[in-house]
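Translate sequence into C-alpha coordinates.
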Amino acid sequence: MRRFTFIFAILLCFTVTAQVKQEIFESFKLQERRDVQYYFPENLDETKKYPLILVLDANYLFDQVVATSKFYSRFHGMPESIIVGVNQSKNDLRYDDCAFEPDTGLPSEKGKKFFEFLGMELIPYLDLNFSTAPFKMVLGYDITANFQNYWLFKDHSLFNAYVSISPTLAPEMETRVPIRLGSFEKQIFYQLIVEGEPSKDTQAIMAMDKGIKAIDKETLHYFFEEYKGADHISVATYGIGKAFDNIFGMFKPISPKEYKTQILTSEEPVFQYLENKYKGIEDLFGFSKPVELNDIMAIYAASRKKEDFESLKPLSDLCKAQYPDSMLGFYFEGEYYEELGEPKKALKTFEKAFQMDEIDFLTKEMALEKMDALKADFGF
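Result follows.
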Protein backbone atom coordinates (compact mmCIF):
# COMPACT_ATOMS: atom_id res chain seq x y z
CA MET A 1 0.00 0.00 0.00
CA ARG A 2 2.94 2.34 0.61
CA ARG A 3 3.61 2.78 -3.11
CA PHE A 4 0.13 4.25 -3.57
CA THR A 5 0.26 6.66 -0.66
CA PHE A 6 1.48 9.41 -2.94
CA ILE A 7 -1.99 9.60 -4.44
CA PHE A 8 -3.49 10.75 -1.21
CA ALA A 9 -0.70 13.24 -0.63
CA ILE A 10 -1.68 15.28 -3.67
CA LEU A 11 -2.84 18.71 -2.63
CA LEU A 12 -6.03 18.74 -4.64
CA CYS A 13 -9.57 19.85 -3.88
CA PHE A 14 -11.68 19.39 -6.99
CA THR A 15 -15.28 20.40 -7.52
CA VAL A 16 -17.42 19.26 -10.40
CA THR A 17 -18.28 22.81 -11.37
CA ALA A 18 -14.64 23.91 -11.66
CA GLN A 19 -13.36 23.68 -15.22
CA VAL A 20 -9.71 24.67 -14.82
CA LYS A 21 -7.61 24.32 -11.70
CA GLN A 22 -3.93 24.75 -11.05
CA GLU A 23 -2.56 22.68 -8.18
CA ILE A 24 0.64 21.38 -6.64
CA PHE A 25 1.36 17.69 -7.13
CA GLU A 26 3.62 16.04 -4.56
CA SER A 27 5.68 13.56 -6.57
CA PHE A 28 7.22 10.58 -4.84
CA LYS A 29 9.21 9.66 -7.96
CA LEU A 30 10.70 13.11 -8.44
CA GLN A 31 10.89 13.94 -4.72
CA GLU A 32 9.63 17.40 -5.56
CA ARG A 33 6.45 19.41 -6.00
CA ARG A 34 5.23 20.12 -9.52
CA ASP A 35 2.79 22.69 -10.90
CA VAL A 36 -0.02 20.92 -12.72
CA GLN A 37 -3.11 22.28 -14.46
CA TYR A 38 -6.36 20.41 -14.98
CA TYR A 39 -9.35 20.97 -17.23
CA PHE A 40 -12.63 19.11 -16.65
CA PRO A 41 -15.66 19.42 -18.94
CA GLU A 42 -18.64 21.31 -17.59
CA ASN A 43 -21.13 19.08 -15.78
CA LEU A 44 -18.67 16.23 -15.41
CA ASP A 45 -20.73 13.02 -15.43
CA GLU A 46 -19.39 9.99 -13.56
CA THR A 47 -21.47 7.70 -15.76
CA LYS A 48 -19.60 8.87 -18.88
CA LYS A 49 -16.04 8.11 -19.98
CA TYR A 50 -13.67 10.91 -20.94
CA PRO A 51 -10.48 10.60 -23.03
CA LEU A 52 -7.40 11.88 -21.20
CA ILE A 53 -5.06 14.39 -22.84
CA LEU A 54 -1.62 15.05 -21.36
CA VAL A 55 -0.05 18.39 -22.32
CA LEU A 56 3.68 18.85 -21.82
CA ASP A 57 5.06 22.40 -21.87
CA ALA A 58 1.70 23.39 -20.44
CA ASN A 59 2.79 26.98 -19.81
CA TYR A 60 2.75 27.40 -23.60
CA LEU A 61 0.26 24.84 -24.87
CA PHE A 62 -2.35 24.16 -22.18
CA ASP A 63 -4.69 27.10 -22.84
CA GLN A 64 -4.64 26.49 -26.57
CA VAL A 65 -5.35 22.77 -26.16
CA VAL A 66 -8.23 23.46 -23.75
CA ALA A 67 -9.74 26.07 -26.07
CA THR A 68 -9.49 23.74 -29.06
CA SER A 69 -10.97 20.85 -27.11
CA LYS A 70 -13.91 22.94 -25.92
CA PHE A 71 -14.60 24.20 -29.43
CA TYR A 72 -14.38 20.78 -31.08
CA SER A 73 -16.45 19.01 -28.45
CA ARG A 74 -19.05 21.77 -28.62
CA PHE A 75 -19.47 21.23 -32.34
CA HIS A 76 -19.15 17.43 -32.25
CA GLY A 77 -15.64 17.20 -33.64
CA MET A 78 -14.38 15.23 -30.67
CA PRO A 79 -15.56 13.77 -27.36
CA GLU A 80 -15.41 15.88 -24.22
CA SER A 81 -12.03 15.21 -22.60
CA ILE A 82 -10.12 15.61 -19.36
CA ILE A 83 -6.91 17.56 -19.93
CA VAL A 84 -3.88 17.63 -17.64
CA GLY A 85 -1.00 19.99 -18.26
CA VAL A 86 2.45 19.88 -16.67
CA ASN A 87 4.10 23.29 -16.32
CA GLN A 88 7.81 23.15 -17.17
CA SER A 89 8.98 26.69 -17.91
CA LYS A 90 9.99 27.73 -14.37
CA ASN A 91 13.78 27.56 -14.00
CA ASP A 92 13.92 25.84 -17.42
CA LEU A 93 12.62 22.62 -15.89
CA ARG A 94 11.72 21.31 -19.34
CA TYR A 95 15.39 20.78 -20.17
CA ASP A 96 16.00 18.77 -17.00
CA ASP A 97 12.75 16.82 -17.34
CA CYS A 98 13.40 15.86 -20.95
CA ALA A 99 17.19 15.63 -21.02
CA PHE A 100 18.72 12.70 -22.90
CA GLU A 101 22.15 11.14 -23.03
CA PRO A 102 24.06 12.50 -26.04
CA ASP A 103 25.57 9.14 -26.93
CA THR A 104 22.52 6.86 -26.61
CA GLY A 105 19.66 9.32 -27.09
CA LEU A 106 17.89 7.77 -24.10
CA PRO A 107 16.55 9.76 -21.11
CA SER A 108 18.95 10.99 -18.45
CA GLU A 109 18.41 10.01 -14.80
CA LYS A 110 16.14 13.00 -14.22
CA GLY A 111 14.36 12.22 -17.47
CA LYS A 112 13.67 8.67 -16.30
CA LYS A 113 12.16 9.98 -13.06
CA PHE A 114 10.03 12.48 -14.96
CA PHE A 115 8.86 9.65 -17.23
CA GLU A 116 7.83 7.62 -14.18
CA PHE A 117 6.17 10.63 -12.56
CA LEU A 118 3.88 11.06 -15.56
CA GLY A 119 3.20 7.41 -16.28
CA MET A 120 3.13 5.99 -12.76
CA GLU A 121 1.81 8.87 -10.64
CA LEU A 122 -0.03 11.63 -12.47
CA ILE A 123 -2.00 9.62 -15.03
CA PRO A 124 -2.86 6.74 -12.64
CA TYR A 125 -4.17 9.34 -10.18
CA LEU A 126 -6.59 10.68 -12.77
CA ASP A 127 -7.57 7.16 -13.89
CA LEU A 128 -8.27 6.22 -10.28
CA ASN A 129 -10.24 9.29 -9.28
CA PHE A 130 -12.08 10.26 -12.48
CA SER A 131 -14.05 8.49 -15.17
CA THR A 132 -11.32 8.37 -17.80
CA ALA A 133 -11.60 6.37 -21.01
CA PRO A 134 -8.84 4.02 -22.21
CA PHE A 135 -8.02 6.49 -25.02
CA LYS A 136 -5.11 8.76 -24.09
CA MET A 137 -3.29 11.46 -26.04
CA VAL A 138 -0.07 13.38 -25.40
CA LEU A 139 1.15 16.69 -26.89
CA GLY A 140 4.63 18.16 -26.77
CA TYR A 141 6.71 20.90 -28.39
CA ASP A 142 10.42 21.02 -29.18
CA ILE A 143 12.28 18.95 -26.57
CA THR A 144 9.07 17.76 -24.91
CA ALA A 145 7.86 16.53 -28.32
CA ASN A 146 10.95 14.35 -28.46
CA PHE A 147 10.41 13.13 -24.91
CA GLN A 148 6.92 11.78 -25.57
CA ASN A 149 8.42 9.32 -28.09
CA TYR A 150 9.91 7.31 -25.22
CA TRP A 151 6.47 5.84 -24.52
CA LEU A 152 6.75 4.19 -27.93
CA PHE A 153 9.72 2.25 -26.59
CA LYS A 154 7.48 0.33 -24.19
CA ASP A 155 5.85 -2.95 -25.24
CA HIS A 156 2.44 -1.38 -24.65
CA SER A 157 2.17 2.30 -25.50
CA LEU A 158 0.52 4.28 -22.72
CA PHE A 159 -0.88 6.66 -25.34
CA ASN A 160 -3.08 6.05 -28.35
CA ALA A 161 -2.27 9.40 -29.96
CA TYR A 162 0.86 11.55 -30.17
CA VAL A 163 1.00 15.18 -31.30
CA SER A 164 4.59 16.18 -31.94
CA ILE A 165 5.19 19.88 -32.64
CA SER A 166 8.59 20.75 -34.15
CA PRO A 167 10.50 18.07 -32.19
CA THR A 168 14.14 18.48 -31.17
CA LEU A 169 15.08 14.88 -31.83
CA ALA A 170 17.51 12.85 -29.75
CA PRO A 171 20.16 10.80 -31.58
CA GLU A 172 18.74 7.92 -33.67
CA MET A 173 15.16 8.98 -32.95
CA GLU A 174 14.50 9.41 -36.69
CA THR A 175 14.95 5.64 -37.15
CA ARG A 176 13.71 4.43 -33.77
CA VAL A 177 10.28 6.08 -34.01
CA PRO A 178 9.33 4.46 -37.34
CA ILE A 179 10.52 1.06 -36.09
CA ARG A 180 8.47 1.33 -32.92
CA LEU A 181 5.37 2.67 -34.68
CA GLY A 182 5.51 -0.28 -37.03
CA SER A 183 5.60 -2.75 -34.15
CA PHE A 184 2.23 -2.02 -32.52
CA GLU A 185 -0.92 -3.99 -33.23
CA LYS A 186 -3.16 -1.48 -31.43
CA GLN A 187 -4.32 1.62 -33.27
CA ILE A 188 -1.82 4.46 -32.92
CA PHE A 189 -2.27 8.04 -34.14
CA TYR A 190 0.88 10.04 -34.76
CA GLN A 191 0.66 13.70 -35.80
CA LEU A 192 3.87 15.52 -36.77
CA ILE A 193 3.69 19.33 -37.09
CA VAL A 194 6.69 21.26 -38.45
CA GLU A 195 7.57 24.77 -39.54
CA GLY A 196 8.67 25.72 -43.03
CA GLU A 197 11.79 27.56 -41.85
CA PRO A 198 14.79 25.16 -41.92
CA SER A 199 16.56 24.32 -38.66
CA LYS A 200 19.28 22.01 -37.42
CA ASP A 201 16.59 19.38 -36.77
CA THR A 202 14.98 19.56 -40.20
CA GLN A 203 17.04 16.78 -41.78
CA ALA A 204 16.35 14.32 -38.95
CA ILE A 205 12.65 15.24 -38.85
CA MET A 206 12.27 14.68 -42.59
CA ALA A 207 14.08 11.37 -42.31
CA MET A 208 11.68 10.32 -39.57
CA ASP A 209 8.73 11.45 -41.70
CA LYS A 210 9.99 9.37 -44.62
CA GLY A 211 10.45 6.33 -42.38
CA ILE A 212 6.95 6.58 -40.93
CA LYS A 213 5.35 7.07 -44.34
CA ALA A 214 7.02 3.85 -45.50
CA ILE A 215 5.09 1.84 -42.88
CA ASP A 216 2.20 -0.07 -44.42
CA LYS A 217 -0.05 -0.86 -41.49
CA GLU A 218 -3.78 -0.28 -41.09
CA THR A 219 -3.45 0.31 -37.36
CA LEU A 220 -1.08 3.27 -37.83
CA HIS A 221 -2.70 6.63 -38.59
CA TYR A 222 0.05 9.06 -39.50
CA PHE A 223 -0.43 12.74 -40.35
CA PHE A 224 2.23 15.24 -41.39
CA GLU A 225 1.57 18.97 -41.51
CA GLU A 226 4.16 21.52 -42.64
CA TYR A 227 3.37 25.21 -42.23
CA LYS A 228 5.50 27.15 -44.69
CA GLY A 229 4.94 30.54 -43.07
CA ALA A 230 5.90 29.42 -39.55
CA ASP A 231 9.23 29.43 -37.77
CA HIS A 232 10.26 27.32 -34.78
CA ILE A 233 8.59 29.70 -32.32
CA SER A 234 5.35 30.47 -34.11
CA VAL A 235 4.70 26.86 -35.13
CA ALA A 236 3.66 26.13 -31.53
CA THR A 237 0.41 27.96 -32.29
CA TYR A 238 -0.20 26.14 -35.56
CA GLY A 239 -1.83 22.82 -36.24
CA ILE A 240 -3.40 21.75 -32.94
CA GLY A 241 -6.89 22.11 -34.38
CA LYS A 242 -5.84 20.16 -37.48
CA ALA A 243 -4.33 17.45 -35.26
CA PHE A 244 -7.60 17.13 -33.34
CA ASP A 245 -9.46 17.03 -36.64
CA ASN A 246 -7.28 14.13 -37.82
CA ILE A 247 -7.20 12.14 -34.58
CA PHE A 248 -10.88 12.51 -33.68
CA GLY A 249 -12.16 12.36 -37.26
CA MET A 250 -14.02 9.10 -36.63
CA PHE A 251 -15.98 10.74 -33.80
CA LYS A 252 -17.36 13.48 -36.04
CA PRO A 253 -20.83 13.26 -37.57
CA ILE A 254 -21.05 12.00 -41.15
CA SER A 255 -20.05 14.85 -43.45
CA PRO A 256 -21.35 15.51 -46.98
CA LYS A 257 -17.98 14.39 -48.34
CA GLU A 258 -18.07 11.17 -46.31
CA TYR A 259 -21.61 10.55 -47.52
CA LYS A 260 -20.67 10.93 -51.18
CA THR A 261 -17.24 9.29 -51.23
CA GLN A 262 -17.68 6.46 -48.73
CA ILE A 263 -21.33 5.61 -48.12
CA LEU A 264 -22.70 5.96 -51.64
CA THR A 265 -19.70 4.20 -53.16
CA SER A 266 -19.65 1.28 -50.72
CA GLU A 267 -20.91 -2.11 -51.86
CA GLU A 268 -21.92 -3.06 -48.30
CA PRO A 269 -25.46 -2.53 -46.98
CA VAL A 270 -25.87 1.11 -46.01
CA PHE A 271 -26.73 0.32 -42.39
CA GLN A 272 -23.52 -1.70 -42.12
CA TYR A 273 -21.56 1.52 -42.59
CA LEU A 274 -23.29 3.06 -39.57
CA GLU A 275 -22.68 -0.04 -37.47
CA ASN A 276 -19.00 -0.13 -38.41
CA LYS A 277 -18.57 3.57 -37.66
CA TYR A 278 -20.00 3.38 -34.15
CA LYS A 279 -18.35 0.04 -33.38
CA GLY A 280 -15.05 1.63 -34.40
CA ILE A 281 -15.68 4.56 -32.05
CA GLU A 282 -16.38 2.17 -29.17
CA ASP A 283 -13.31 0.04 -29.91
CA LEU A 284 -11.00 3.05 -30.23
CA PHE A 285 -12.20 5.31 -27.45
CA GLY A 286 -13.44 2.68 -24.99
CA PHE A 287 -17.01 3.95 -24.70
CA SER A 288 -20.14 3.95 -26.85
CA LYS A 289 -21.47 7.13 -28.43
CA PRO A 290 -25.21 7.73 -28.94
CA VAL A 291 -25.97 7.75 -32.66
CA GLU A 292 -26.23 11.30 -33.97
CA LEU A 293 -29.49 12.34 -35.63
CA ASN A 294 -27.36 13.70 -38.47
CA ASP A 295 -25.93 10.21 -39.05
CA ILE A 296 -29.35 8.56 -38.94
CA MET A 297 -30.63 10.95 -41.59
CA ALA A 298 -27.54 10.35 -43.74
CA ILE A 299 -28.07 6.59 -43.61
CA TYR A 300 -31.79 7.02 -44.33
CA ALA A 301 -31.04 9.20 -47.37
CA ALA A 302 -28.45 6.71 -48.65
CA SER A 303 -30.85 3.81 -48.18
CA ARG A 304 -33.42 5.59 -50.33
CA LYS A 305 -30.90 6.74 -52.95
CA LYS A 306 -29.30 3.30 -53.33
CA GLU A 307 -32.66 1.53 -53.03
CA ASP A 308 -31.22 -0.47 -50.15
CA PHE A 309 -34.57 -0.82 -48.43
CA GLU A 310 -33.40 -3.72 -46.26
CA SER A 311 -31.32 -1.21 -44.30
CA LEU A 312 -34.48 0.63 -43.27
CA LYS A 313 -35.51 -2.14 -40.85
CA PRO A 314 -32.38 -2.17 -38.63
CA LEU A 315 -32.34 1.64 -38.89
CA SER A 316 -35.91 1.76 -37.60
CA ASP A 317 -35.01 -0.54 -34.71
CA LEU A 318 -32.09 1.71 -33.82
CA CYS A 319 -34.32 4.80 -33.87
CA LYS A 320 -36.88 3.16 -31.58
CA ALA A 321 -34.12 2.57 -29.04
CA GLN A 322 -32.30 5.91 -29.37
CA TYR A 323 -35.26 8.20 -30.09
CA PRO A 324 -38.18 6.30 -28.51
CA ASP A 325 -40.62 9.24 -28.38
CA SER A 326 -40.11 10.34 -31.98
CA MET A 327 -41.65 9.29 -35.28
CA LEU A 328 -38.33 8.09 -36.66
CA GLY A 329 -38.51 4.39 -35.84
CA PHE A 330 -42.08 3.71 -36.92
CA TYR A 331 -41.90 5.99 -39.99
CA PHE A 332 -38.80 4.21 -41.32
CA GLU A 333 -40.37 0.84 -40.51
CA GLY A 334 -43.52 1.90 -42.37
CA GLU A 335 -41.46 2.70 -45.46
CA TYR A 336 -39.70 -0.66 -45.11
CA TYR A 337 -43.03 -2.54 -45.21
CA GLU A 338 -44.22 -0.27 -48.03
CA GLU A 339 -41.22 -1.18 -50.19
CA LEU A 340 -41.54 -4.84 -49.15
CA GLY A 341 -45.05 -4.92 -50.62
CA GLU A 342 -46.92 -5.34 -47.34
CA PRO A 343 -49.38 -2.41 -47.34
CA LYS A 344 -51.43 -3.50 -44.30
CA LYS A 345 -48.34 -3.65 -42.10
CA ALA A 346 -47.16 -0.35 -43.58
CA LEU A 347 -50.48 1.35 -42.82
CA LYS A 348 -50.54 0.19 -39.19
CA THR A 349 -46.94 1.28 -38.73
CA PHE A 350 -47.53 4.75 -40.19
CA GLU A 351 -50.53 5.07 -37.85
CA LYS A 352 -48.16 4.44 -34.93
CA ALA A 353 -45.74 7.01 -36.34
CA PHE A 354 -48.57 9.55 -36.55
CA GLN A 355 -49.04 9.28 -32.77
CA MET A 356 -45.38 10.03 -32.01
CA ASP A 357 -43.48 13.32 -31.75
CA GLU A 358 -42.28 15.09 -34.88
CA ILE A 359 -38.51 15.26 -35.39
CA ASP A 360 -36.22 16.86 -37.95
CA PHE A 361 -37.97 16.78 -41.35
CA LEU A 362 -40.55 14.18 -40.30
CA THR A 363 -44.01 15.62 -39.57
CA LYS A 364 -47.39 14.17 -38.72
CA GLU A 365 -48.61 15.50 -42.06
CA MET A 366 -46.11 13.27 -43.85
CA ALA A 367 -47.32 10.22 -41.94
CA LEU A 368 -50.91 11.19 -42.72
CA GLU A 369 -50.09 11.50 -46.44
CA LYS A 370 -48.56 8.02 -46.39
CA MET A 371 -51.67 6.61 -44.71
CA ASP A 372 -54.05 8.33 -47.15
CA ALA A 373 -52.04 7.11 -50.14
CA LEU A 374 -52.09 3.51 -48.92
CA LYS A 375 -55.84 3.66 -48.28
CA ALA A 376 -56.47 5.10 -51.75
CA ASP A 377 -54.22 2.58 -53.51
CA PHE A 378 -55.44 -0.53 -51.71
CA GLY A 379 -58.95 0.45 -50.66
CA PHE A 380 -58.46 0.01 -46.91
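Note: Residues 121 and 160 are 19 Å apart (CA to CA).
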